[in-house]
């Protein structure tokens, strides 16, 4: 329940920011706002202001801003009029440029919200737990991403133990940096600088598109030293008397270089595994009874990195830069939908978005208290940018579709007929319905798989 509540709050916040943009600019340019609702459905609470009725809807999902006369084309069709009624203070009575400003305000406020959130996040600082920028080839575990084809990492000539120092001129500080740049560049040839056995190697790496996620992948794992950081109480590892600080040297007689070696040993044994440990300079032996490394209850030492702005101007600059980077990445992601991505897995509907926000928030709060909300805020900023871009698409019903219509009206120097607008909006409604069905099916498959 907590997960659902937190998810709904996060999703609703982004939508309400969008709708408030429409509200504020509409009032500024003289268009009456009949109602502003937080949530949908019948109103639980209402407050009648001078010009606007404020509502709290029964369904806590987003909200809406109802402008006077915004659906005037329907009234024109019902009354068999060729024109849309333009009563004083109504949406269609306003000049096309004012209507464009109103339509543009929603996405603009989402972008401003993202800048503010990213600025706040980098101002207070975020701590990232990750692994070093050293890799293990997944092909060593027998894992190939595509049947009959080598993984991109193998094709590029990467080797287990390589330290990736830079990609396309960008310094790779840790595995988190590596994941970010690989995921955002599927199909792009990247120049990679690798440190191998003390010498520099220059390679070309082309990430492969993962059709299920839309992200680039290359087929590597992070190299994590087999040094125990913590042991879960009453776990197989605790029963075997493993302790923080232990270094695992071998498993069933095979040397262990990293956690992937250890994972392979458990996978091969499918039962008890005899471990040789180093503890306080002495070697010890113990047997752990588990069928997989995940079952053992062992956590391994990771590295942490704190990203924090040096000043408020620096935070604002970084917040704006992160927003624009997210904008560009989202545009590229939309293009991937036409390159063979499985939309039933890569596209998320409201239910999955709510679940992901709520899960991230509840898990982070459990571990770090209120400080755990910082990564969640970043996720909301990403979502806000996505909502802005989606609404700017030149499709009927969306803000971008309205902007297109009003620019056409400016060019023609006369409004489109009520019938034309109605047909245009009908096509848009049909498109949105199809998109809703796809997103809903995607959510169903996601939750069924869990």
Automatic annotation (TrEMBL):
Keywords: Hydrolase, Membrane, Metal-binding, Metalloprotease, Protease, Transmembrane, Transmembrane helix, Zinc
Pfam families cross-referenced by the UniProt entry: PDZ_6, Peptidase_M50
Keyword match Signal: no
Spans traversing the lipid bilayer: 100-124, 395-412, 424-449
GO biological process: proteolysis
Top class in the EC scheme: hydrolase
EC assignment: 3.4.24.-
Record-annotated PDZ domain positions: 227-281
One Gene Ontology cellular component annotation held by this UniProt entry: membrane
GO molecular function: metal ion binding; metalloendopeptidase activity
Protein localization: Membrane
Cofactor: Zn(2+)
Record carries keyword Repeat: no
Membrane topology qualifier: Multi-pass membrane protein
Family named by the database record: Belongs to the peptidase M50B family.
Record-given protein name: Zinc metalloprotease
UniProt source species: uncultured spirochete
């Amino acid at each position: 329940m907590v997960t659902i509540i937190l998810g709904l709050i996060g999703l609703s916040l982004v939508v309400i920011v969008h709708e408030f943009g429409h509200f504020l600019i509409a009032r500024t340019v003289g268009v009456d706002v009949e109602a502003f609702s937080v949530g949908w459905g019948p109103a639980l609470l209402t407050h009648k202001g001078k010009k606007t009725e404020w509502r709290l809807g029964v369904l806590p999902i987003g909200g809406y801003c109802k402008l006077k006369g915004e659906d005037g084309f329907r009234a024109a069709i019902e009354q068999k009029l060729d024109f849309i009624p333009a009563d004083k203070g109504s949406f269609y009575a306003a000049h096309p440029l004012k209507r464009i400003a109103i339509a543009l305000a929603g996405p603009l406020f989402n972008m401003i919200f993202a800048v503010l959130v990213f600025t706040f996040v980098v101002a207070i600082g975020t701590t990232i737990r990750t692994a070093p920028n050293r890799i293990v080839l997944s092909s060593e575990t027998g894992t190939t991403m595509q049947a009959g084809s080598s993984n991109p990492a193998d094709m590029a000539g990467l080797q287990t133990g390589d330290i990736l120092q830079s990609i396309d001129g960008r310094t790779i500080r840790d595995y988190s940096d590596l994941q970010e740049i690989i995921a955002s560049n599927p199909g792009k040839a990247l120049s990679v600088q690798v440190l191998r056995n003390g010498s520099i190697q220059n390679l070309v790496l082309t990430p492969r598109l993962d059709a299920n996620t839309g992200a680039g992948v290359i087929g590597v794992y992070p190299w994590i030293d087999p040094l125990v950081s913590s042991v879960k109480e009453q776990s197989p590892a605790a029963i075997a008397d493993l302790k923080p600080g232990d270094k695992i040297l071998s498993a069933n007689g095979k040397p262990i270089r990293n956690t992937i070696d250890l994972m392979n040993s458990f996978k091969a044994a499918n039962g008890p595994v005899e471990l040789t440990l180093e503890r306080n300079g002495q070697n010890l032996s113990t047997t752990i009874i588990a069928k997989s490394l995940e079952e053992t209850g062992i956590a391994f030492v990771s590295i942490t990195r704190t990203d924090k702005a040096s000043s408020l101007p620096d935070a604002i600059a970084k917040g704006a830069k992160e927003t624009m980077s997210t904008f560009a990445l989202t545009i590229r992601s939309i293009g991937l939908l036409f390159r063979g991505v499985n939309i039933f897995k890569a596209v998320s509907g409201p239910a999955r978005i709510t679940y992901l926000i709520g899960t991230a928030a509840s898990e982070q709060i459990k571990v770090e208290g209120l400080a755990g909300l910082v990564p969640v805020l970043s996720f909301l900023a990403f979502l806000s940018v996505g909502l802005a871009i989606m609404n700017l698409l030149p499709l009927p019903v969306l803000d971008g579709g309205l902007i297109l219509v009003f620019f056409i009206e400016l060019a023609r120097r006369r409004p489109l007929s009520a019938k034309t607008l109605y047909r245009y909006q009908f096509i848009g409604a049909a498109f949105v319905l199809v998109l809703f069905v796809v997103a809903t099916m995607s959510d169903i498959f996601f939750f069924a798989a869990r």
